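Quick look at the format.
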Amino acid sequence: MKRIFIYMIALICICFSIPIVFTKEFAQRTYSQGTVNENIVDNENTEKLENDIQKSTYDYKKYNKIKLLHTETNETEEIDLDTYLYGVVSAEMPASFEEEALKAQAVVARTYTIYKIVNNDGKHGDCDICDNSTCCQAWISQEERKSKWKESEREENWNKIVNAVNSTQGKIITYNGQPINAFFHSNSGGETETPVNVWGGSGYPYLQTVATSGEDAYSQYSSEASFSKEEFEEKIKELHSDFEIDFSKDDCIKIKDYTEGNRVKTIKIGNLELSGVEVRNIFGLRSANFKVTVENENIKFEVIGYGHGVGMSQTGADSLAKQGKTYEDIIHHYYTNVEIEDM
């Protein structure tokens, strides 16, 4: 009887021991698997970090830093190329535009910068480029740019700009192996213009007239300007002292011909024949694509588009991006027979 009691005690101990052993083994196995998973996550984070470091340390060789002239203060700032481009893209294109449009702007701005450095005419002394949009490209500091955005949008907008530049690092547009003069403007009014019709000269083979749909959806597409007859005469006489006009004649103002991009090429105003570009400059019009009418005591301009019209249209780029085009598609649309190359 005593022996049976001892066996029973031993059997009970064994029954209690089995779950403990298996539970411990399961716990060790689970912990081991958890450690492996954590290592996988750590490896992924490390890989992502390495990629970020690689992006931020892209070697532009002799173009890693540029000398930027701040025109208002006449001060020079030495700045990393892509850091400079953050300021250009955020100054030149709304952060609300599509990401592919922002990427296209980043590549165009980088190309324009390199072109200016390679073809430095010494206009800015020892500097490579200035921050004046009427001369080179617009530029704004990160702090000033953020201050102009709503507080709730600042970080998201800035990150979007930075991503557009970083995700296209090293990319420039070339023609016959050389960086192009990558002109751009706000809104083409539906068709871009060739340089010869804006600045004269022989032009650039990669800058041709191309059409873009959807630009009429933007506020930059159309505008109006009105001047009294007296103001109209005074503005022209500032440049042409011999100007005379008889407003009683039906043909006192008459457009004579148009460019390939549907802008005014030459226009007869009184005793003068002027180019559409000159008239645009005299009256501060948004574009040389205009109609002009005499309405009682006023001269009214109805204007289509915004800017000189050469190269990439920024609103056109956004329109193309909304249609599903990539930044490469956008660039090849606006610049003819070019390549997108890594520096």
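Next, a different chain entirely:
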Amino acid sequence: MRNAYLAFFKENNNMENMLVKEAQGKLGVLVVGVGGAVATTFIAGTLAVRKGLAKPIGSMTQLSHLKLKKGNQIISKKLSDVVPLTQLNDIVFGGWDIFPENGYEAALHAEVLLAKDLDGIRDELKTIRPMKGVFDQNYVKRLNGTWIKSGETRWDMVEQLREDIRSFKKENGCDRLVIIWAGSTEIFQKESAAHQSLASLETAMRANDTEVAPSVCYAYAALSEGVPYINGAPNLTVDFPAMDELAAKTGVAFCGKDFKTGQTLLKTVLAPMFKTRMLGLEGWFSTNILGNRDGEVLDEPGNFKTKEESKLSVIESILVADDYPDLYSDIYHKVRINYYPPRKDNKESWDNIDLVGWLGYPMQMKINFLCRDSILAAPLCLDLVLLTDLAQRSGLSGMQTWLGFYFKSPMHVPGKLPVHDIFVQYDVLKNKLRELIGEETFLLEEN
């Protein structure tokens, strides 16, 4: 199967112009929060797909097509046939958590997937036993970790994480690794002196400065070990100068932040529509109910503030009030998340949108989205793991802005506005893939 894949790939691509190295050997995927709802849904789903027990619905890397120019023609090929992604059979899972349950026990506890869907991968899930996590309850007050590392300083914790990374790679015979944060949202945090340079960050960790969040320990350990890092939460983790400096030093790729799944996904689709049609916007009120561990964490005001900042930035950056003051200069944008235990992982969101049309006449749009949080996030995890590994094999280091398609708060170069329009993001993503395989890029209207 693998030889056939490589033969097809070489036949259908300009190998001389390719920037990316072949995906040889095993890819280790280390998940922070490996026992959580998102992580267990991602891992269980990937295992089920590769055993032929399910279909990878929602995954662009597994189902999408990529258009390519061949002379005067445009042909469409399945993306996974023309981009040298790691195959699912070559992935090995592991990770850290602050609770000790194995993958099967954690998936049952999460109550996202039904027992009948876990039965076919029960044995594989049971082998995934979390390494002890780095924990500071000040960052997630609603959780009480029981499976945690001990050490006098943040630096001690980082050294333990680095040893975990090296041991996992050796014990599982992995050629490459990717680390992805699928843990809880930490409390809201702004950059401090500790974040301004690599030297200051390392000094702060040695002094056990509480300004250094647990997520930063994981990111520092990853980049120091040459492992790409994906920030799936709105935490202040890799988007500050010290991490830019470390990534440049080690030549490692990173991306983030905060998986774009339900309500925000809709905003990145609808806001471009309003702007394209020159419809005004007076207000957008969004509220959610959620009952899983993520909902419990976000019930704490400090943690919700982090998520709120991530969600609020979307509309304004798409509509650009400075360019269209008559339409968007005075938008009231409100976001709420409410913890409601009976709903578990089945999140429900309501949006009320107050629009302005011809001659200033008001209109309203109301949306009720009954979604499944982890079901939406899981395929994003798979795509991001495969594409970040691709970036690393292509020699791309530092911030991967082309992966902004997957995030609520896409990372961007300082001084530039982030791109939130999902259709522009999608075009950027596809063009980067064409570029990496030595193909001609398309303009948006041709894509």
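The chain has two domains: 2-259+375-446, 263-370.

See the schema section for token definitions.
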